[in-house]
Specification:
The complex is a heteropentamer, with 2 copies of chain A, 1 copy of chain B and 2 copies of chain C. By secondary structure, chain A is mainly alpha-helical. Chain A is built from 8 helices and no strands. Chain A has one domain: MetI-like (MetI-like fold), CATH 1.10.3720. The C terminus of chain A is likely disordered. Chain C is of the alpha/beta class. In chain C, a hairpin with a 2-residue loop joins strand 4 and strand 5. The two termini of chain C are 31 Å apart. In chain C, strands 6-7-8-3-9-10 form a 6-stranded mixed beta sheet, with helices on both faces. In chain C, strands 2-1-4-5 form a 4-stranded antiparallel beta sheet, covered by helices on one side. Classes of the chains: A mainly alpha, B alpha/beta, C alpha/beta. Bound molecules: adenosine-5'-triphosphate (2 copies) and magnesium ion (2 copies). Chains C, E: Belongs to the ABC transporter superfamily.
Chain lengths: 230, 239, 251, 230, 251
């Protein structure tokens, strides 16, 4: 357990971490996009679009991520759609988290006072701009702590992508443990790296939350007194 | 728990895993635990003169259950390895086997040893010892499967040429389900020879001794042979 | 009514509106000429806010026709957009955007809708903020303003869009008399530029000063419609007389 | 694949389902309680309480549920705290989901206009009642779709409790598949049962959402038009 | 000022309050006798809302002392609770509870705070809802009301708690003259029962009618404090004269 051993072990683990982070960033970005689109589809006044969004959300939420990954990687391959493990993993994580984020975004959007829609409509601001400039920034602020939850779950769930042959952090750990027979040490290192990543993301979200707070409104610091004072 | 405590409470807590026939499984018809290791554990309890109580966990839970003191004895198809021996104390080996090759019944090719597998399309279970043997073999395509039925199906469908497997499970499966069109390669000489035994918590010497004694007696009086024979695997018994 | 030569800029014919079972507006006819300043008054709950919200389709009507600037309002989003580009509104509850500063509240709509440059938009916004006497609050967020300051931001935000028609829903409710005077002056000035106005207000002094015509509503119907002198001098209906009785006895 | 076989297979699966549902209901209930308490601790004006809540949230979100279950069931047993698998499983799920729910609840509570706090304070309504009667019902309505996400994840994550000797649905399926060699059929049945459970929960949440909607406010049905109309 | 024999029920001494760098209230002294009806007026942004929000500690002051009913307000939650039990407030923005019906808005606080039975609470609530003429809206939610109706619910909600002191922040801003009269009558009646009132308003007619004393604020300071006849008849300061000039010129 000397330093040299640890350095020796760290090399493959850091390589795995790069894959984990790549999966995280690509699918986080895409999942937010898919989540937004699905959310608006879910809120559409056209019945067909709404139903399609509901169907997507229910199917994804009703099945485990592992099954979805298998389906995309192995199932689609049987009908001739062959993707690399990384692409399939990104796609799977995106589709999975997109469905959950869609419902989270809907929570946020529905928590915005209808007066905000009315004012922006009355000013003539059109649908997309209304959403981008008026509604989403406020909704985002409302759901921000919960959004952090999903970021942290995403980084941990990315380990499932190991089953479709991506050597991300968890898989690197498994292989290292198998070849060195030092599973305790290896898994401790793996856990520490995940925890580190989680802490960084968590910190980023706490900072983001501070930046999003609006003077004169709920800002945690000033109104928190509410819960202990009378 | 030390031996005297086990004897005092008159129950032996045994942890097993019920998803590995014929070593241990849950019979859906009777809703009871069955299998070689289950029978062996029962035999040991009989020899100790105590009743038996099973805990059934997935593979990953076996060793923690023992080390956390939730069970006295582990009776599961867990290979005896140096690494595991660092955290638990294994009993004397009871039975064992090496890796085997499964292929279609009409296959003419033979694989005399492990080196001859090089360059073929091979299937194994994910996270199995066989997978670890294969994963660094150059020029070889390795497919991994969640369980044996899917692996066997792919052998029959000729998506893979051979499967590198645990012979006892496959033999039992081919026999009990009468799956046609498959055979074990009799000429294959396994590279490894894994042994299976029970295990007790690290340092629980008197219980280990008592279990070993019981096993020795069962070996002597043929009980062990009868158990393995019942599952069609008497040839695997450690002499 | 000698000015009835032009086509009305707002024309409502036989408009009825229900909220569930409750009929808010009852077969209502209402029209406004270009450049006219119409004051809408009447008891609480009579349907004044609902009426003006129909004009830029924040509510949908169930019967009758509404045409603004010659465009008839129906489900066509394109028409609705056209109408909204011409119609500004000041809300009873202000509806400022809490996440934007006062200046952004006023300038961002200009940039988004009228595609003005950032500098141009901010200059225009500052001009109107100065007009309502709060240029010094430009950097604050709505949550940091007093009631009257919020209301003035709402007025400045709408005015800076320079719409052809302005709808005011009690634009001076939170204002002190000094500021009422200020807003009144601004409105008179805008009207001189030809802006059409429909203004709901309870302040009869303000109504007298600003209005070309007073429309009195009760229970979802228009009861009386007359120039201020006539309306305040000799109301034709008992209901209006009763209503005005309370006003006059007070001051 | 005749009916008798399926009936034979269904018996152990249904037994497993009972455990899954038991885990779900007990830990859903407790996790909401833990989530609420943590959320208020997180918002407390006392620094120590706030820090403790943050610490709990970060540790839980930074480690995988599986590790938490192992720690509670096996780790604690080594220092003499022995729980049954079911109790340990419930505890693990509760603590895990409690941390995520705490952040979701905080999202909801912070989305409530401060005027609501002021009005209830001015009326003399005290802290706990203020939360119970005024704040939480409105916050709950705001986060309701996202709460459904967690219910669905909880029922699926309950399968991890298998490692600590609870024969819930997934474990029953594994054992059945192993002993019958009919893994395709068995896992299809298992998947169907999970999907059924998810659908029922989803449906319950959709109904609940309708019940929570307030006339005259955002109610999805009437305001949805916002997204397609001008 | 011959009634100054009693102890004041509200006593503010040398109170200063800052929002960040901005000083809203400047070393302000203000006291109200039991049963007195004080009208607070002054230009927008002068600190009127802030002043009354200090009385039930919706804001914290940084300097000076505030005592209500003999209880000095500091960080002690117990004292704050005691004060709030005695002080009712009507907000400028109403702050109704959107998830409760009109009746629940009024009756639930009675049940929670005064431990009244459901029946008793609802009867009391209905009594006050009738007084502000909206018993028929009892089953609706706030989102379904007009502006004036909301304001009346807010008034009924506070009054039904029967507090010893009422703080009103522009209680008639959304009301038509008829309803103003109604609210005014109710307030006069309550004052006859000995309720103390502090009322921010811009409606000078209302102020004249209801006030025992008019307090005029500007820039976070109290400039003048006098009975209505004196204040409206012969304002002592130039600032007040200017302010009133706008009012009088209007009507
Ligand atoms: N969403 C709704 N559902 C049911 N009734 C409603 C709804 N919105 C408004 N109403 C009712 O419609 C009537 C007219 O409302 P409106 O807001 O137009 O009144 P108003 O004339 O503006 O009154 P005020 O002067 O008080 O603002 C009121 O009686 C109100 O209760
Ligand atoms: N949270 C805040 N942060 C910074 N400044 C604030 C904040 N709240 C209020 N102010 C400022 O304090 C001043 C006094 O506000 P207050 O609400 O007391 O005014 P007011 O006399 O009630 O005015 P109005 O008649 O317009 O309601 C205003 O200039 C306002 O901009
Ligand atoms: Mg109105
Ligand atoms: Mg104010």
């Amino acid at each position: 357990m000397d330093f040299d051993t640890i350095r020796l072990y760290l090399t493959p683990l850091l390589e795995g971490s790069v894959w984990t982070l790549a999966l995280f960033f690509s699918s986080a970005f895409l999942a937010v996009a898919v989540g937004l689109i699905t959310c608006f589809a879910r809120l559409s006044s056209r019945r067909a679009i709404r139903t399609a969004a509901k169907f997507y959300i229910e199917v994804i939420r009703g099945t485990p991520l592992l099954v979805q990954l298998f389906f995309i990687y192995y199932g689609l391959a049987e009908v001739g759609i062959v993707m690399s493990g990384f692409v399939a993993g990104t796609l799977g994580l995106t589709l999975n988290f997109g469905a959950y984020l869609a419902e989270l975004f809907r929570s946020g959007i529905q928590s915005i006072d209808s007066g905000q829609y009315e004012a922006s409509r009355a000013l003539g601001i059109r649908t997309l701009q209304r959403l981008r400039v008026i509604i989403i920034p406020q909704a985002l602020r409302n759901i921000f702590p919960a959004l952090g939850n999903y970021a942290l779950v995403l980084i941990k769930d990315s380990s499932l992508v190991a089953v479709i042959s991506v050597s991300e952090l968890m898989r690197s750990g498994e292989m290292l443990a198998a070849s060195t027979f030092q599973s305790l040490l290896v898994y401790t290192l793996v856990g520490a790296i995940y925890f580190l990543m989680c802490s960084v993301i968590s910190y980023a979200f706490r900072r983001g939350e501070k930046n999003l707070s609006i003077p004169g409104y709920w800002d945690g610091a000033s109104e928190s007194s509410d819960f202990s004072k009378a | 728990r030390p031996l005297n405590e086990v004897l005092a409470t008159k129950t032996l807590n045994v942890v097993t895993t019920a998803s590995n026939p014929p070593h241990g499984f849950l019979d859906p018809g009777t809703n009871t635990l069955q299998g070689i290791m289950v029978d062996i554990a029962k035999g040991i309890a009989q020899h100790l003169g105590v009743s038996i109580s099973f805990t059934n966990v997935p593979f990953a839970g076996l060793i923690p259950t023992l080390t956390s003191g939730r069970a006295d004895l582990m009776a599961a198809p867990l290979f005896i390895t140096e690494e595991r021996a660092k955290v638990v104390d294994f009993t004397t080996p009871v039975y064992g086997w090496g890796e085997g090759i499964i292929m279609t019944a009409d296959s003419k090719q033979h694989y005399p040893d492990f080196e001859s597998l090089k360059g073929h399309k091979i299937g194994t279970l994910v996270d199995s010892v066989q997978y670890r043997m294969l994963k660094d073999m150059p020029g070889t395509t390795v497919s991994t499967y969640q369980d044996y039925p899917t692996l066997l199906a792919d052998v029959r469908a000729r998506r893979i040429e051979i499967g590198l497997i645990d012979p006892p499970s496959i033999t039992y499966q081919i026999q009990s389900k009468s799956i046609p069109g498959l055979k074990l390669d009799e000429q294959y000489k396994p590279q490894n020879d894994w042994k299976i035994g029970g295990a007790v918590e690290k340092g629980n010497a008197d219980l280990l001794a008592a279990v070993n004694k019981a096993l020795e007696q069962m070996k002597q009086n043929g009980e062990l042979h009868a158990i393995l024979d019942k599952w069609g695997l008497s040839q695997l018994m450690v002499k | 009514m000698e000015t009835r030569t032009m086509d009305p800029i707002i024309a409502m014919n036989g408009v009825s509106k229900w909220f569930g079972d409750f009929q808010v507006l009852k077969n209502l006819d209402f029209s406004v000429d270009p450049g006219e300043r119409v004051i809408l008054c009447g008891p609480s709950g009579s349907g004044k806010s609902t009426l003006i919200r129909l004009i830029n389709r924040l509510e949908e009507h169930q019967e009758g026709t509404i045409a603004v600037n010659g465009i008839e309002l129906d489900d066509d989003p394109h028409k609705i957009e056209q109408v909204r580009a011409d119609v500004g509104m000041v809300f009873q509850h202000f509806n400022l955007f809490p996440h934007l500063t006062v200046l952004e509240n006023c300038s961002i709509p200009l940039r988004l809708v009228q595609k003005k440059s950032a500098r141009e938009a901010e200059e225009l916004a500052m001009k109107y903020l100065s007009r309502v006497r709060i240029p010094d609050q430009a950097g604050k967020y709505p949550g940091q303003l007093s009631g009257g300051q919020k209301q003035r931001v709402a007025i400045a935000r709408s005015l800076s869009m320079c719409p052809r028609i302005m709808l005011f829903d009690e634009p001076t409710s939170a204002l002190d008399p000094e500021m009422v005077k200020e807003v009144l002056d601004t409105m008179v000035e805008l009207a001189r530029d030809g802006m059409t106005m429909v203004c709901v207000t309870h302040e009869m002094g303000f109504a007298k000063e600003v209005g070309d015509r007073i429309v009195f509503m009760d229970c979802g119907q228009i009861i009386e419609s007359a120039p201020p002198a006539e309306f305040f001098g000799a109301p034709r209906t008992d209901r209006a007389r009763e209503f005005l009785g309370q006003v006059l006895s007070q001051h």
